[in-house]
Amino acid sequence: MRVTLLAHTPEPERLIASAAKLCYSPVGIDALREGLTDGAAAEFVGMLAELGHESPIEHITFTFGIEGVSRSLLAQLTRHRMASYSVQSQRYVREGAFDYVVPPAIAEDAQALAIFEGAMQQAQQAYDALGERLGQLQAEALEREGLSKKAAARAAGKSAIEDARFVLPNACHTKLICTFNARSLLNFFSLRCCNRAQWEIRALATEMLHLVRAVAPSVFGTAGPPCLRGPCPEGKMTCGKAEQVREHFALR
């Protein structure tokens, strides 16, 4: 997994403080911003967090580049709908010798790993064979419709992988660029940094939190699973490791 913070709103905490202060200030926007030092802005954003006044933080956004994650993770990530996603397409990008994510529980056992890698090889072979066969059939059909051999082969190759991709596994690598506003990120971290989240998306969320906390510490200083800010809300489903979780995030 590789996670990069590609871009973010400049001076994020000053912008949040400006937006919040504007609601109650008679002065113009320029004058209001000139009176905000970085320290004053950070203090004001901290106060907003204590009050639970979250709408002003929607003005700042963060864009991430994410590589080496599974299609299984992608399905979970895109459930967070208040975000924008651009994902490498399996419809248009041929998966030649595709890379894949190996779950730690599988990697730790030689027998399980052998079964898993065998399945990945079979998926690759099926994908390649389907692509070749479907490409051949579609090229022949296009030639009968009047396309030249070269044009038919080019069009058929693109069309073939559209159906061949159905045999690709959830483990198959993907890459994407996504943009969140800060309020959506806080919700994302609360849900996905929790020990009850699936291991891969928990690792992604924790790395994303580490990156944004360095840029906007007043916004994300207490971000993470709910047990960082109070008792665990999971009831009987709790992991029972709140103290360890707090120590872990304090060190990040």
Which properties best describe this structure?
252 residues; alpha+beta; Gyrase A, domain 2; 4-stranded antiparallel β-sheet; 54% helix; 12% strand
List the helices and strands and how they pair.
Elements: E1 2-8, H1 12-22, H2 29-34, H3 38-51, E2 61-70, H4 71-77, E3 83-87, H5 104-107, H6 110-144, H7 149-164, E4 173-181, H8 182-192, H9 199-215, H10 217-220, H11 242-251
Antiparallel strand pairs: 1-2, 2-4, 3-4
Helix pairs in contact: 1-3, 6-7, 8-9
Question: What does this molecule look like?
Answer:
By secondary structure, the protein is an alpha+beta fold. The protein folds into two domains: 165 residues, Gyrase A, domain 2 (2-Layer Sandwich), CATH 3.30.1360.170; 64 residues, no CATH class. Helices cover 54% and strands 12% of the residues. The chain contains eleven helices and four strands; from the N terminus they run βαααβαβαααβαααα. The chain has a four-stranded antiparallel sheet. Helix 1 crosses helix 3. The protein is flat.
Number of strands: 4
Structural class: alpha+beta
Instruction: Write down the CATH class of the largest domain.
Output: Alpha Beta
Strand content range: 5-15%
Would you tell me the overall average pLDDT?
Answer: 91
Q: Could you state the oligomeric state of the chains shown?
A: single chain
The total of helices stands at: 11
Low confidence ranges = none
- Order of strands across the widest beta sheet? 1-2-4-3
